[in-house]
């Protein structure tokens, strides 16, 4: 097994085991979205209008939920020292950890979104658009979150700091994700315009995230 | 193979930990590093594997693979065991063997060497401190690397396990490896050089 494949398998195993972060993210997502109709009331038109925004917001918070332990856990038990000594470049190591996090946290959100969307009175067309935007947008959330996770690694209580650092950076993703989902439902702008920008943001964060996070981890070695 | 350190100095924040430290270890030789608490024993080992910046002086490795850094040819056994409690004993070892580039690792032999073969399926969270340390040592056996850097390797080990570790270290030296160990007491390495840190030059 190559070093990076071994790391991917390990991180996914840890996330999926009891006490890992994967199940927590999906449950948080489901609970938040389920509570919205109770708070807003049974106004089907209103729910349909704010549905994509609710799902995106809950997805954003859920994907950041387990992120603060991504590097801190490895630092606390000494694994990070050995990972830094390995032959795999740190940027790729960080990217693989991000991929494992997305596969165990982001992907379940994407899959469960259509089911939970029924609670918000979303029709088939809206469900499809929403799923597509989440599929494209959640990797960006994870990879931007990597930067915050790497910066927070030396801090004992990094969770709050992570949110403060990362959430402002995710605003563009949120704007264009929701805009694309809404465009598919109500118009008047075509779906493709905000969706293309969302794709571009994701591609950029896939590149920038690992490099910035690796630089932050190196800085903290001292 | 020969690992030398010349006039090394370590700086942690504003505090100079040590300066003008030199050593030379060749294949088949061991070096024990001793000194009071805070003298920089662990820092010296971490410097060698590149986990701490070198404030002054330099490290050189002759006769190693020129394509690889010192850290990539070394094992570092630190205070922390680098184990995940939710993974089993075999999964923990299998991950490190895979991460250090071993394609098909036979995990039974290294686990049996440290006496953990019967616990391969147990989650590492249930291991005692000494068993965790033994599992870390199994990593050194599973992945062959010439340089062993051991930080207090015998802490938490019982007498039998200490004896077993001494045998493993002797076998590693006999096979042409080299060992640098930070320790307060004897760790069972006969004929090792000694480097004392933190004394007035």
Description:
The complex is a heterodimer of chains A (222) and B (201). By secondary structure, chain A is mostly helical. Chain A has one domain (3-219). The model of chain A has no long low-confidence stretch (mean pLDDT 87). Chain A is built from ten helices and no strands. The longest helix of chain A is centred in the middle third of the chain and has 28 residues, at 90-117. In chain A, helix 6 (90-117) packs antiparallel against helix 7 (124-151) and helix 7 (124-151) runs parallel beside helix 10 (192-219). In chain A, 48% of the residues are buried. Chain A has helices at 3-16, 22-40, 44-65, 69-76, 79-85, 90-117, 124-151, 158-169, 171-185, 192-219. In chain B, strand 1 (2-12) and strand 2 form a beta hairpin. The model of chain B has no long low-confidence stretch (mean pLDDT 86). In chain B, the strands form two sheets. Chain B has a five-stranded parallel beta sheet with strand order 5-6-7-3-8, sandwiched between helices. Helices cover 27% and strands 26% of the residues of chain B. Chain B has five helices and eight strands, in the order βββαββαααβαββ. Chain B has one domain (2-196): Rossmann fold (3-Layer(aba) Sandwich), CATH 3.40.50.300. Chain B has helices spanning 41-48, 89-99, 108-113, 129-142, 159-174; strands spanning 2-12, 15-26, 30-34, 56-62, 74-77, 147-151, 178-182, 193-196. In chain B, helix 2 packs parallel to helix 4 (129-142). By secondary structure, chain B is of the alpha/beta class. Chains A and B meet through helix 1 and helix 5 of A and helix 2 of B.
List its salient traits.
heterodimer, A: 222 residues, mainly alpha, 10 helices, 82% helix, B: 201 residues, alpha/beta, Rossmann fold, 5-stranded parallel β-sheet, 5 helices
Question: What is the CATH topology descriptor of chain B?
Answer: Rossmann fold
By CATH reckoning, the class of chain B would read: Alpha Beta
Give helix and strand order of chain B, one letter per element, not per position: EEEHEEHHHEHEE
Unreliable stretches of chain B (pLDDT < 50, length at least 5) are none
N to C succession of SSEs of chain A: HHHHHHHHHH
CATH superfamily of chain B: P-loop containing nucleotide triphosphate hydrolases
Main sheet attributes: strand count, strand direction, barrel closure of chain B: 5 strands, parallel
Please give the radius of gyration of chain A in angstroms. Answer: 18 Å
Structural class of chain B comes to: alpha/beta
Summarize the largest interface: chains and residue counts. Answer: A-B, 28 and 29 residues
Total E-strand runs of chain B: 8
